Structure formats: structure tokens, C-alpha cells
Amino acid sequence: MSTDALCKDARIIFETGYRSVQPLNLINKEVEINSNSIQIQGKSFPVFKNVYIVGFGKAVLGMANALETKLQEHLVSGIISVPDGMLTTLNTKLHDHFSSKSCIQVYEGASNNIPDENSLIAATKISGIVNSLKESDLLIVLISGGGSALLPAPKPPLTLKEKQKVIQLLASRGADIEELNAVRKQLSMLKGGKLALLAKPAKVISLILSDIIGDPIGMIASGPTVQNSDNPSLPLSIIEKYNLIQDLPKTAIQILTEAANQKQINESFSHVSNFVLGNNETALKAAAEKATDLEYQTLIVTNRLSGTASIIGTKLISLVMSAVDKRNLNEIINELKLPSHTQEMISEAIFQLKTYGKKLCLLFGGETTVEVKGTGLGGRNQELSLSAALELYNRKPQNSIILLSAGTDGIDGPTCAAGAIASVSLIEEAKSKGLNPSSYLLNNDSYNFYSQMNDGWWLVKTGHTGTNVMDIIIILIT
Q1: What is the pTM of this model?
Q2: Which comes out higher in pLDDT, residue 403 or 99?
Q3: What is the C-alpha separation between 85 and 251, in angstroms, rounded?
Q4: How far apart are CA 211 and CA 303, in angstroms?
Q5: How far apart are CA 142 and CA 113, in angstroms?
Q6: Which of 110, 222, 243, 384 is the most exposed place for a label (fewest CB within 10 A)?
């Protein structure tokens, strides 16, 4: 197959994956409502025109719309906080509904996934509605990836600007999502279960779309409805790990130090029920079905891929090349922390490829990180893809191989792309233009590199997808 044909297939497979976790599909599948009750995954809750909705994240606009349609007269009102521009970039029907027909107020903010004054206003409004609830009320909390930035409520005397600095510094040093959220919870008035406590004595139902490996509900959007089980000294130890004690605002250090020295109080969360409606595995299974329909022998290798994006991109190509060459395969599998059966599974697939010419699709899910050292523009998926492309070019495989890495939310870093595609011909094109791809990678400038290649054709652009279950990586081999 030609590279163009492989790229087309990869884009189709990716689209199928992220569309499978669209909020409307998940709500219709997992939530049933009749005249006096709501059923979710086998549990039933009474409803008597006493339901309120709050939400925050990249998927909650669609979740809220689907729920409002189902709840009808049972819904009193609601407030949701969504990424800046989402209401205008998603379909016209959603825009019209929330602009004129809905009893749910929509606030947009957190441009580039950074908490801002707009998201702070939304968080304040959400706090107000939650704090006003009575024992007879039912609160439905919609939570998805990006929710942390959309629910900023800094613990006094910390300011929003100071909290932004804390998170930006941690992210630039390579802190992963678990570490970022552990610190966020300690610095927040709502995260780490505090939103659910504020809702007492009302009943609370959380509907969650997971964007973290392993679906730890206490980490998703920093767990606003989940009892915080972190050791109180953990956030401060994370700050120390990245040598940031001297760089952070004194108010942040003060709050973290006081928390580390306080005895933890265990509050009751018996009024809260949390449900995960969809995750990365959901998307991978749908992607695998589409790849099989396209006549690929398809393997879901893992949904727990993590690590530094540029290193993972190189290692994924090394994994494929080691399987083809039958050399050092187990070593690469261990480095990528893949399941123990991976060697046998991939080796058999490569045998089928070589012996019978069967096309192969390898699927990976998870989320990598970027350690920012340069001044360029990019995201983890574009950086992973660029490093993979360089490794392909250097290894010069006999098979046709492409890799697509993209975020299911449609936004990769502060760019308009979801991700990008890697192939040997991409680097050949760059070399013919006199460009040095390695220098772009070192400068964390993958977006500007890809934008110059065939008018950005190698970029994967979807716009806001209205969902978020981490990343999908697709490797196609013929």
C-alpha cells in the first residue's frame, strides 16, 4: 500500500475511536430515566423535579445536552464550564440549544487548558449552586478531562495567577498528570472531594469520562467528588522532587506546608455515587473494530502507555523494527512497560505479515508528557510523531510503516491540531526543503515543523471533538 493510503486508513481508524466516546452515545447507553427514577449502571436513584446539573471538562457540553433531553421537567437548572470556543466550534444545534432553549448556563474559559478569570467565574457560580442544595435535591456532576483547569478555586490567600504559576512550572519540568492533580487538590477549595462535601446534604451522582491511565476517579479533574486519599505530605514532596521550593509563590508553599503538617480528617462520602461512563479502552476497542473492517490484523497492545513523548515515539518504532528483525524485542517491551504477552502477540502478527502479507495495525492508548526545553510550539502527540518519523528515517524499514498519534479531545498542546503522522517520506520531504527535523524536535517546535510539510497535510486536525479519553496511537504496517 502507498503511504497516502495508509495515512487515510489511520485517520479513519482514529476518527472511529474518538467518535465512540462521544457524550451522546455514552449517555444514551449508560443512563436511563423514567417518570420517577434514574438508572445508571444498575443503580437507581429517585427523581422528583429536583435535579441540578454542574459540570466541567472538554466533554460536558454534550453530556449536559443529552442529560437535559432525558431529564426534561425533572431538571431545575445547571451550570457547566467548558473550554474557550467550544460552544461555537461544535455543531450548530448544540449552540442554538444552549443559547436559547436550555436551563443550563454555559461558561467558556481556560484557553489552552490554563485556568483563567473566566473559568474562575464559572467555578464561583458552580460553588454557589452546589452550596444552596437541600437534602431532597439531586446533584448530577459531569466530569471529563480538562476539568481541573475549568474549575479553579484557589485556596486563600493563593491567587489564580499564583496557582497558574505553580501548575505551569510543574508541567514544564515534566510532572505527570497524577502529580499535577495531587498538587491542584491541595491548593483548591473544590477539588479532592471538596465539591461533594459542599453539596451536603443533597445526593450527588458523578458521571465521569476518564482521561487518566487506569481510570483513578480521584485523579480525573482532580477528583472533586471523590474523597482525597493522598498522603497530605505528597504535594509538598512533589514540589521538592522538581526542585521548585524557591521558585513557587510563598503562599503556595505555605498552604502545602500547613497541609503536610495537619492531621487528615475523614469525612463521610455516603451521599456520593461515582460512575465512569467511558475511557481510553472504549475508544481503542472501537478503533480496533474499524481496523479489522479495513482488513488489518489488529492488536490492542496497551491502554497504559506513558513516558516522555519524544522517547516513546522512538521506542515504538524500535519495537516494530525489533519484531521484524527478531532482535532485542523483549528488551524494548520491558522499556515500554508493556504486558508480558506482548512479545508472543506481536511476533505472531509479524509472522503473518511476512508469510501471508497480512496488513498489521497496532493500537496503543495512554498519555505521554513533554519536558519543555525549547521555545517552539507543539504538543505531546506531534512531538511523539516527529521522533517516530526520525527513527523510521534512520532505520529505513523494508516494510511500509506509518504512525499516527493524536489526542481524542482534538487539541494537542496550544495548537489547532490533534496530533500528527510519522513516515519516512515526511523526513525525506523535510530534507529536500533543507530543514533539520531534529532541531525542531529539540526546540519543542513540532507544530511549526509539521505546518511546513505539504501545507500541514501530515497534521491530524479535527477541532474540538467534544470528548476526551487521552491519546490513541496507531501503527500500520504492510
Answers
A1: 0.86
A2: 403
A3: 32
A4: 11
A5: 18
A6: 243
